[in-house]
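Project standup — Tuesday

K.O.: blocked on the structure for the chain from last sprint. Re-posting the sequence here as requested.
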Amino acid sequence: MTKPTADTLAAAATTAARKGPPPVHLWNPPFCGDIDMRIARDGTWFYLGTPIGRAPLVKLFSNILKREGDAYFLVTPVEKVGITVDDAPLLATDFTTTGTGMDQTITFTTLTEDIATLGPDHPLRVERDPTTGEPSPYVLIRANLWALIDRKSFYRLVDLGVHHAYAGQDWFGLWSSGQFFPVIPSSELPPDLSE
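H.V.: unblocked you, prediction finished:
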């Protein structure tokens, strides 16, 4: 069996996409090896070290992306190839809100046009760099695929943040879909955000 190329994967993804979103969670084809494809932290996809400049092609590839454990693959019904992901496989680049306070709903859009409303099925998590304490926020988009929330969107989210008692502690976080998502303990906030 020859190793799939970006062209053969794109053709298979195009065929699958004609029938609606591909059911990659149901596909378990044989592993065909790794392919020289990488997703950078800023959401740029690379093939053979060169950025993939065509947004529709990147979107096609993102639709056949699957995570198994800590590994990422592009899958079709007949083949599976491993790719490298520097951080998160998706990048949330914008969001919209409706309502306010506990009735607020936050809906994210990714660079590859995925849409997910922050809530029980699409939770938020925030990791902090152990050295700098710098936060990295993520939202679950689909099937164990998380999106890093870009910096400008995160700053906008901070403007929506409120203090709320959560798990026996005061937290600064966000309301969406009737659920509170903690971001950082209130006691660890800089003085300009602690009120």
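K.O.: great, moving the ticket to review. The mean pLDDT is 90. The first helix runs from residue 6 to 17.
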